[in-house]
Fold this sequence. Notes:
13 helices, 5 strands, 55% helix
Amino acid sequence: MSKAKVVVLTGITTTGTPHLGNYVGAIRPAIEASRDPNVLPFYFLADYHALIKCQEPKRIQQSTLEIAATWLALGLNTDNAVFYRQSDIPEVTELAWILSCVTAKGLMNRAHAYKAAVAENTEKGEPDPDKGISMGLFCYPILMAADILLFKAQRIPVGKDQIQHLEMARDIAARFNHLYGEHFVLPEAVVREETAVLKGLDGRKMSKSYDNTIPIFASEKQLRKLILKIKTNSLPPEAPKDPDTCTLFSLYQAFASPEEIEQVRRRYQQGIAWGEMKQFLFEYLNAYFRDARTRYEALLQHPEEIERKLREGAAKAREFAVPFMREIRQAVGIAPLAGG
Ligand code: TRP
């Protein structure tokens, strides 16, 4: 692997079906970066992270399959990008333990996800503020630090909610380096812009937790049905409408070219019927994803093909992880006593 490239790394938790918000905010920019010869991307399916919030084995398995198929169908360049499943890299969990031993418990006490869970218990009047909170949730930032530090990743594209985790990864890396010498690279968060936040069916941010998403590879029928459900105001068909407060328009804007956007903006000013705009958006998105959807469906018919790709990715990742973990083990004093 060439040293000159910038290592960009990101993980996708395998608990759901990828939706248009994921596409615009994370997948599309990541796939674009995978074509940049100056970037060495590490993209992985964070299935150990999935265990923190999901205890339905079938769902994790299905989500892993769907997410992997989605990235491949959308054209991830796996000649350049290292695309793998976290659980195929045992060095990740091994490193997570070593990092646990240099991480202050107090640092984890301050993690947003943990604090939010405690606050919820307290609000409910629970006598035990830690009720229902697993060690997995508590230590989640350490596992994430291991994901990142293991590959000396420099840039981590994340949503705003993950900034704190990146700060923690830097803290943990610095602490380790201070104790054992300079082994880890301090990663930097690359925060996605707000413009990349897509609106969902109800006009709020498209998110699994609001149940307002449109799956990237919804069938034609499902896609039409979902778009018909999008909330609009009650203006009559001929009335001029404001595109900038309209969910339909904001969805269109995330996919269309500047000229296309301008044209539709004019249609809004002239007065476009909601039914017409919905049909138009449906046709546009349907065409936009048609070829990729065909590839996606073909991949789902051949999970062995996906499995093969993931194993190739894991082998590439381990070319890096195995020797680096040997170095880390050595650094902390865990090494063969003789014979090298
Ligand atoms: N925690 C991230 C999320 O929920 C996913 C993730 C796991 C991740 N490990 C990572 C992101 C490492 C970036 C780097 O979005």
